[in-house]
Amino acid sequence: MKVDVLLGLQWGDEGKGKIVDVLAPQYQVVARFQGGPNAGHTLEFDGFKHVLHQIPSGIFRPEIKNIIGNGLVLDPIVLKKEIEGLAKYNLPLQQNLFISKKAAIIIPTHRLLDAAYEQAKGDAKIGSTLRGIGPAYQDKVARQGLRMGDIVSPGFKEKYERLVNQHKVVLDFYKYDYEAALTEAEATFFEATEFLKQYNFVDTEYLVNESLEAGETVLAEGAQGSLLDIDFGSYPFVTSSNTTTAGACTGLGLSPRRIGEVYGIFKAYCTRVGSGPFPTELFDEEGERMRQEGREFGSTTGRPRRCGWLDLPALKYAIMINGVTQLVMMKVDVLNIFDEIKICTHYQMPDGTLTDRFPYDLCHNDVTPVYKTMKGWATSLENLHTYDELPTELAAYINFLEAELQLPISFISTGPDREAIIHREAQVV
Ligand code: GDP
Ligand code: IMO
Ligand code: MG
After folding, report:
1. How many angstroms is it from 39 CA to the middle of ligand 2?
2. Quick one: CA torsion of 214, 217, 221, 226, rounded to 10 degrees?
3. What is the DSSP string of 128-145?
4. Would the CB of 381 count as within 6 Å of ligand 2?
5. pTM value > 0.90
6. Nearest ligand, measured from the Cα of 14
7. Which spans in 31-154 are helix H?
């Protein structure tokens, strides 16, 4: 059996949570492979709206095994809150949630360090979610971090103290006032680690590979987006993990030969939270209308998301890095309000040349997007369930994108609810 991978092709918040939820009935296992509480994946169904941060988006289907892979950095305090927040749904989490013993732990000082680093950067700050992601991955790579398996091992408290003492030296260096915040968070942290002991801590690499051997289907759920990837994103304005397909292999213990379909999720326009280059960003009233219509405010931090037109050079780059096999286009309904739709096909570089590549020096050079303008459909898409019912202008938009991207757009999402989705039968592009 193969593992299908589902990930974001832009700067995050593409709508991954919704599509995992839509596809979940086809799978027996859903596994998150990287990131942590910086993610906010929204699911809407039966009048409920729920945002997941660290728990995989298959959790609402009790028959599915939900795996938190080794590639994550997990905050026990957030995980406890997430589990408690799910109590009202009566889900069998002790049976269907599996936490990798090898997942890295975010401890309270990681969050404080995240804040201290950002403060010290001033205007050059990354705009991180302040969830401690960068410092936790830093300790993992420095081979001094704690892992979830340590919670149930002797000596956990001593390992914790050793790490905190190191962090205090750094916090002192940055003159960051941490005492009160740390005392409060530490008590909550140890309550949370005790609480979590009732759940399954396993070697998830065995679980996922044995599930495959037993003929089960597996969906790997990415967090963030490809342009936030630590290696391929708009560095240094990125997150600290590999958000791309390769991350599914290292974040779950899978051979690359196991990868099957790669679902690339993208919005019909672009958004970004936090700092960093964003070539098609709109600073005018059009951008504001997009933000309001798309309710573009962060699921994790509530920050307004920066908005702009679809960026094909960036999308082509993300498709290449990920080996995408099928595209899923989200939030098409948000463009109902525009008479004209723009698509960036190229960048004009400072020396006047045109390119459809994602430039290395995007952070230092202003590139000017070159747009193609198409007629908008300017009508509601509510209650449309088949491709044939789509307005002709939208069909033309989709055909143009498929020809440019050389891939089929297999799903078109027209609203936040689970039901607002149009599945297009396989097309040859
Ligand atoms: P994720 O991080 O990729 O899972 O995405 P988020 O949940 O952070 O952000 C996507 C937002 O768009 C959520 O509020 C979703 O409920 C909403 N959403 C998802 N698909 C659609 C859609 O097709 N149309 C509209 N209008 N909203 C959508
Ligand atoms: P989901 O999974 C959108 C952004 C932050 C910041 C940068 C680094 O919901 O799509 P970090 O806290 O990771 O050190 O922040 O990455 N960022 C996201 N933006 N969606 C996310 O997750 C994000 N996770 C991190 O805003 O710019
Ligand atoms: Mg999100």
Report:
1. 6
2. 110
3. --SSSHHHHHHHHHTT--
4. no
5. yes
6. 1
7. 76-85, 93-96, 108-121, 133-141, 148-151
Q: Tell me the Cα Rg of the chain.
A: 21
Q: Smallest Cα–Cα separation from 96: which of 52, 118, 64?
A: 64
Q: Ligand 2 within 6 A of 127 CB?
A: yes
CA distances for 321 relative to 8, 40, 55, 71, 343, angstroms: 12, 23, 26, 19, 21
Distance CA 171, CA 177 (A): 8
Tell me how far the alpha carbon of residue 411 lies from the centroid of ligand 1, in angstroms: 14
77-98 tens-digit pLDDT: 999 999 999 999 999 999 999 9
Say yes or no to pLDDT of 34 above 90: yes
Q: Work out whether strand 340-348 and strand 368-375 pair parallel, antiparallel, or are unpaired.
A: antiparallel
pLDDT digits (tens, 9 = 90+) for 410-422: 999 999 999 999 9
Q: How far is the centre of ligand 2, averaged over its atoms, from the C-alpha of 224 (Å)?
A: 6
Interval 308-333: pLDDT, tens = 999 999 999 999 999 999 999 999 99
Ligand 2 mutation target, pool 228, 266, 306, most atoms within 8 A of CB: 228
Cis peptide before 236 (omega within 30 of 0): yes
Taking the CA atoms of residue 10, residue 15, residue 17 and residue 20 in that order, the dihedral angle to the nearest 10 degrees is -90
Residue labelled with tokens 């949370």 = 192
Q: Which ligand is nearest to the CA of 272?
A: 2
Contact 240, 302 (CB under 8 A): no
